[in-house]
Amino acid sequence: MSKKECIYFDNNSTTPVCDVAKKECITWLDCYNPSNDSKYTKSVKKILEDASDMILGHCGVNSASHTVVFTSGATESNCFALRTCVKSYKRKLQQVGSILKPHIIFGATEHHSIISCVQDLFNAGEIEYTQIKPTIYGNIFEADVEIAIKEETCLISVMYANNEIPVITDVKKIGLIAEKHGKPFHTDATQVFGKFQFNLNDKHIHMLSASAHKFYGPKGVGILIINNHLIDPEGYGITAEINGSQQNKLRGGTENIAYICAMVSALQHTFKNRKKKNVELYTLRKKCIEELTNNYEIGDFAVYTENDTKKEKKDLEIIFLGPPEDKKEFILPNTILLSICKNKGKPFCNVALKHYLDEKGIMVSIGSACLTGNDKASHVLTAIGAPNVVKVGVVRISFGDKNTVKEIHDFIKVFTDGVKKQCADIIKKN
């Protein structure tokens, strides 16, 4: 991927690998196996230790209280968190002669790796679960989580920020509820880990997943940070899902040193002037919305519900999904999720618009990156109650640190032309 190839507005799917990460990766591609007990492998073992310390320090903690498990990415990290908590809690239930099944609480807008893993465990008869419905803005309320907690609840999993709707959930409040009831709290922080710095203890997060390719690192490497209490046999006593001697026996397999080094370099690189970069991202977002509002009738910063009859619909509208602008602290600064709502005539087709943009050298998304090729509407849109007219017109725009105002100008022109092509039957001719 390069800026010369296209205008790239799909950074929530993946970010381009930064030069420092590429260089670091190449440097360590031919390193020794850290599992080899030799004087020549000491430097490689030290790299793993330093990488863990750097990541934990980035999260305001250290190895005395937390452990980093290097994985293939957030999908593996998410599944590790769910499956190992279920296995450990089930063992504890059996020790006291309980016939109850472990119970998981999770949000209905979670990444598919969470939802699919929960469903797989349920189908196997391993668990019971409660799925929390979000607000129309996509966030999860802590009060709904607390109501769902049972004696046998083994894990609460709520994502920090959504990968489709630009909403940040107040995970600290959910973490506090989890601790109040003595339950571990896991968050998929994939969309915020490279954009914000936070303290795990302050947020009351016990397990955290992230992927390097969301913050300008390589694909195929990620992390799961675990509070050591969950590893302690006297605590939860979680064990590996991939067995082996590596990583304190928590995740077997020879460590991908080159990619781990590249991930750490990418994280260090992306956090240089991070606050300034976030301001610039939010400015791009605001500029894009402003230019779009000059072209179309604009709907609310939320979705219409099926029974919304109070507001008169225009023939053609753009609706922005996510928190209102006066709730800036809950908005993912680089992301816009909009829908072209054609309320008259032939329904709008976001697939056709995406293809048109592709042909013109612009790359966006029409839903979660993990749903590519799936003709069903995103589960996130279904969860927030979006009507069909919204679902068929949804487009996600996600900016990266290298995007420019000029690219937005160019995008708006092509985007407008693409919409007009589909809406010629209702657009009034001058």
Top-tier CATH class of the largest domain: Alpha Beta
Mean pLDDT: 91
Q: Helix and strand string, N-terminal first?
A: EHHEHEHEHEHEHEEHHHEEEHEHHEH
Number of domains: 2
Low-confidence parts = 368-373
Largest sheet: 7 strands, mixed
CATH homologous superfamily heading of the largest domain:
Type I PLP-dependent aspartate aminotransferase-like (Major domain)
The termini sit apart by 40 Å
Strand order of the largest sheet: 2-8-7-6-5-3-4
CATH topology of the largest domain: Aspartate Aminotransferase, domain 2
Describe the structure.
This protein has 430 residues and is α/β, with parallel strands linked by helices. It folds into two domains: 19-270, Aspartate Aminotransferase, domain 2; 273-422, Aspartate Aminotransferase, domain 1, CATH 3.90.1150.10. It is 36% helix and 14% strand. The chain is built from 14 helices and 13 strands. The protein has helices at 19-27, 42-58, 74-95, 112-123, 142-148, 171-180, 200-203, 228-231, 257-270, 274-293, 350-359, 379-383, 388-391, 405-422; strands at 7-8, 66-71, 103-107, 128-132, 153-157, 185-188, 207-211, 222-227, 297-298, 316-321, 335-342, 362-363, 394-398. A seven-stranded mixed beta sheet has the order 2-8-7-6-5-3-4, with helices on both faces. Helix 2 (42-58) packs parallel to helix 9 (257-270) and helix 5 runs parallel beside helix 6. The longest helix has 22 residues, at 74-95. It is globular, with a radius of gyration of 23 Å. 47% of the residues are buried.
